[in-house]
Amino acid sequence: MINLNNVTLRRGRDILLEDLSLTVHARQRVGVVGRNGTGKSSLFALLLGQLGADRGEVQMPAGLTVATVSQENPAGTRAAIEYVIDGDTELRELEANLARAEADQNVTRQADIHERLNTIGGYAGRARAARLLHGLGFAPDTFDRPINSFSGGWRMRLNLAQALMCRSDLMLLDEPTNHLDLDAVLWLQEFLARYPGTLLVISHDRDFLDAVAGQILHLEGKRGVLYTGNYSAFEVRRAEKLEQQQAQYENQAKRRAHLQAFVDRFRYKATKARQAQSRLKQLERMETVAPAHWDSPFTFAFAEPKRLPTWLLRLDGAAAGYDNTPVVAGMKLTIAPGDRLALLGRNGAGKSTVMRLLAGEQPSLAEPVGRDRYLNIGYFAQHQLEQLDHQASALTHLQRMDPAATEQKLRNFLGGFDFHGDKALAPVAPFSGGEKARLALAMVVYTEPNLLLLDEPTNHLDLDMRQALERALQDFAGAVVLVAHDRHLIDATCDQLWRVADGRCEPFDGDLDDYARWLRAQQANAEGGNTPAPAEPEPARSSSREARQAAADQRNREKPLRNELKKLERELDRVTVKLDELETQLADPDLYAPENRERAARLTTEQGRLRKSRDDIEQRWLDCASELEEA
Q1: Please, which pLDDT band fits residue 244 given cuts at 50, 70 and 90?
Q2: In the chain, pLDDT over 70 holds for what percent of residues?
Q3: Mean pLDDT over residues 120-131, rounded?
Q4: Which three-class secondary structure state does DSSP give residue 536?
Q5: Given 40, 435, 523, 616, which is the most exposed site by the fewest CB atoms within 10 A?
Q6: Alpha carbon of 297 to those of 93, 419, 566: distances in Å?
Q7: What pLDDT was estimated at residue 604?
């Protein structure tokens, strides 16, 4: 049992936590949440003995074995699997002792060590390390590669594998999913579900927390409150708590009124129909979820794209790769406004390569990619943060993108991403990873794209920012292609799943639960298990597949109506412009002089004709909109 009694913790002159009292019982699983800077990582440092409490008492059992992930990238020529095995310190000590006993020909000591090795499963240590590496996405032929041959992200996975290798009583994991793909996240969820010790995990991935946590410790305003249940239960409980406070209730009421006003005004306008439906969903969820994020500092939205052509991108046999060697080939895909695609697959399968192909950053190695002339791509890449100018401010970054914009306009825009006052003028260099990610995302939003390509946009983003991004994507009128390890974001924003594997990019017939089952079957087969890979998702999930197919059929039925609405809107815009010009002429007093009588009569007749044409177009638009609503 871990006890914190009235603990106060400082960093420099700032108080991070004040009078925190907390009890964590053995084998509990606690998710630690809160905005960046609220003291989550400092709390872990306190439990690890790296920081001392400024006031209060920390009580932990003697002899507790604690596992945690090193935040420093490992280096050297040691083989990856040997580095992972190092996580089991007792096993390594027994191996060293056994070597000494053999050198001393101490048979009794050797027997004792062999007995202990048998007790702790030491003879299966290498196999256990191999399973960990495989689960975290390492291919078997990389197990014996030196650490120096891996990139930074893969080295952090080695650190995680080493922590999981430790036979610990307490495990402290700080953002363990940041360097993982969705496949590895799903595997880690299952691993932690079987972990027999006490678990404290910091995460901004709500689905991950739902899967692994039974309690949520929420840090806010230098205080900490422990809630029973997973993250979804925490959201509901905190929402109920906040709703009891009048000021917050009034804030929510204003937000509801704003959303309802938008719906009432635009739900029957074709160009706003998708956004109106998204706001209806927000109203439905607001009773439980939105209040938990009522005080979020993030209030941004994607601007309405200037152009929304019938299609944006077409791939018919395209291939992506390097040095004339395809990584993914035979891609056939059409992306149109309103499409929401998520790319699934392990790291290294080619997801980012496909995204670069779509973004135009590398050419197709086979059939070219068709691009509409009005295509405007907003591309958030994994290397986006590295391309920021660390000496420039957030405001300077936007001024370079749009020199004609006023400073006030740009500062107002940055405020939606919580860059206020001096923060908008400060150099980027000392920004946290989350702040840099927010700036990089803000730069993408500012370009007013009609196609968003988002490659792991949630890395370093806290829960409030992820909530704001989810809401903005729901309102976005263009198309989205998303690569993410955040299941909740995929579920909330995407309706098509495409799997990148074995050199192909193809639709996945099922939902994320089906994908998780498919991965488990593949894992069992790879480890020599007896669980056969199902040929197709289980019948119990067939309704989900049917719903996905029905949604696709629905879009096909709606497409002619949507095209007709766009055509009518263009006609209406043209007639309205002519009518405005005509009425400007009719407002000229000189037109009614005797010598202009014939011209005045002609313009008046034309005005009547244009008004009738406008009324006819509006009626056709209303009829078409009603038909679309019924569909």
Answers
A1: low
A2: 86
A3: 95
A4: coil
A5: 616
A6: 50, 9, 36
A7: 84
Residue with tokens 């084998």: 27
pLDDT score, position 268: 58
Q: Global pTM?
A: 0.74
Helices (H), 371-486: 394-401, 407-415, 433-446, 463-475
Provide φ and ψ at 174, rounded to 5°: -105, 105
| Burial of 323 per CB tally in 10 Å (0-12, 13-18, 19+) | exposed
Per domain, the residue ranges of the chain are 1-64+169-240, 75-168, 245-293, 313-387+448-537, 556-630
Other beta carbons less than 10 A from residue 118's beta carbon: 10
CATH topology of domain 313-387+448-537: Rossmann fold (3.40.50)
Terminus-to-terminus CA distance in the chain, angstroms?
58
The pairing of beta strand 340-344 with beta strand 479-483? parallel
The DSSP bridge pattern shows strands 2-11 and 377-380 to be unpaired
pLDDT band at 543 (very low <50, low <70, confident <90, very high): very low
Sign of the dihedral defined by the CA atoms of residues 97, 99, 103, 106, in that order? positive
The mean pLDDT of 211-233, rounded to a whole number, is 94
- CB 359 within 8 Å of CB 453: yes
φ, ψ of residue 81 in degrees (nearest 5) = -70, -35
Phi then psi dihedrals of residue 450, to 5 deg: -110, -5
3-state helix, strand, coil in the chain (%, to 5): 50, 20, 30
Amino acid found at 446: Y
**CA 541, chain centre distance (Å):** 25
Sheet of 55-59, strands arranged across: 14-24, 2-11, 55-59
Contacts with 245 (C-beta within 8 Å, 6 or more apart), sequence order? none
One-letter identity of residue 408? Q
Give me the torsion for CA of 531, 536, 540, 541, rounded to 10°. 120
Closest-CA residue to 512 (of 532, 498, 529, 527): 498
Structure tokens at 50: 């790296």
CATH topology of domain 1-64+169-240: Rossmann fold (3.40.50)
